[in-house]
Amino acid sequence: MPESGPLEDALIVLAAAILFVPLFRRFRISPVVGYLVAGVAIGPHGLGLMHGSAGTRFLAEFGVVFLLFSIGLELPFRRLVAMRRHIFGLGLAQVALTSLVIGLVAVALGRGAPEALVLGGALALSSTATVLLMLVERGEVTVRFGRITVAVLLFQDLAVVPLLALLPLLAGDGADVVRALALAGARAALALAGIVLIGRFVVRPIYRLVAGARSPELFAATSLFVVLGTGWATAQAGMSMALGAFLAGLLLAESEYRHQIEADIQPFRGLFLGFFFMTVGMTIGLARLADQALVIAALTIALVVGKAALLIGLCRLFGLGAAVAVRVGLLLGQGGEFAFVVLGLATDRGIVDRGTGQTLLVAVAISMAVTPLLAVAGKRWSEHLERRGAGAAELVEEADDLAGHVVIAGFGRVGQTVASLLAANRVPYLALDLDADRVAQGRAQGLPVFFGDASKPNVLRAAGAARARAVAVTLD
To answer: 86: left (phi > 0), else alpha (psi -120 to 50), else beta?
Structure first.
């Protein structure tokens, strides 16, 4: 059928979302799966109503951009500094080890070194959009495993920079790899420094001026400009737009305008994220899925199980508890949206065989679709691993990278009310109680509740009280 225009595309996408997403929500299935199925249905491999136009893909990228901006708003800079060990330690180890293992497997299967390098790098990355959306929806961004997951995803976004810089060199367009990487790193550093300076000395005064005008429309327009402007700046430096948006959110996280900015951005985030997942669904080729069902199934299982196992092992090496390691590993076992970008460019340049690239993209899309199931499995497995009531070691681990949190002394009726208010405002907290049954019930719900006497200095020290913004005493 002839290719539709922009208005027809928008109507088709919106109609598919209205039809599929509420249906999946009714059966308590993640809306991410609903968007993916909707994309399959209207895409070129389904009813053929849409063919993944450039305009639709461009709008879809905004979903990840707005999502990372929202995450940045929830992570003040002091908390990010506290997470540096997991970002540049665990994140680096995950990308390097996973890339190496996948690359070695590719070489063993007869692939050349350039192709193996690209495949390893592309498949080592996880889906920022899928995972963060689930964490935000469930209020788990500030929980221990959520913070670790965000840290690894942040480093993966940084790792895209050298990977994209390598593509033209691997295709034969250049020879000096070190020089190209150094140039890409310098451009990235300048862009990041520029964003930080502009954010501190320009953006906040602009917000103060705009807020004084008392125009909600102008305030929302300013927020959109900041998100898209910082994304554009990092894209010009060869990095992802999402990374720039995250930095912008980070710089505004401690400003007095944070909550209004978040409210203005939320509708755009949800709409564009829906576009993103539907474009991913459009890439799932049903014909190829039918012809190579066993191969694609084997690739998907190997990718998810292999990445999860490697990350669980690395988390344990970095001193994380088994329950946290399992949840992080299974949450990040899928392929990511950047695999579509990297493999698409590598295929166009002849680095990766086109048939191989298409097969891998279908496997990556399926791995993203099963992420909600992996999250459920990780939660149940971690609950099985946790003992009845967490002890001092688990408390120290949970508070290790927390700063600016709230310690709740007592988790009775009032303590639970305080915890609910903090969670609703995405403020991290730790709760202490001496009632073992109450602690067990809270742990079963995935809440950061620990057995301990808040009147003891060593317990408060373990809970990171010296770094907390407040201690709420709700005891009799």
So the answer is: alpha
Say whether pLDDT at 142 is over 80.
no
Task: Give Cα 126 distance to the centre of its chain.
Answer: 8
Residue 470's H or E segment, with its range, is strand 470-473
Contacts of 290 (CB under 8 A, 6+ apart): none
**Look-up: residue for tokens 């491999």?**
45
430 phi, psi to nearest 5 deg:
-130, 135
Q: How is residue 158 annotated by DSSP?
A: H
Tokens at 20, concatenated: 């599929």
The whole-angstrom separation of Cα 459 and Cα 24 is 44
Please state, in angstroms and rounded to a whole number, the distance separating the CA atoms of residues 34 and 17: 8
Phi, psi of 386 (to 5 degrees): -75, 140
Backbone angles phi, psi at 450, to 5 degrees: -135, 150
pLDDT by residue (tens digit) across 414-429?
Answer: 988 898 888 877 788 8
The structure tokens 């907290």 sit at: 429
The torsion angle over the Cα atoms of residues 132, 134, 138 and 140, rounded to 10 degrees, is -40
Amino acid at the residue 275: F
Question: How much is the pTM?
Answer: 0.67
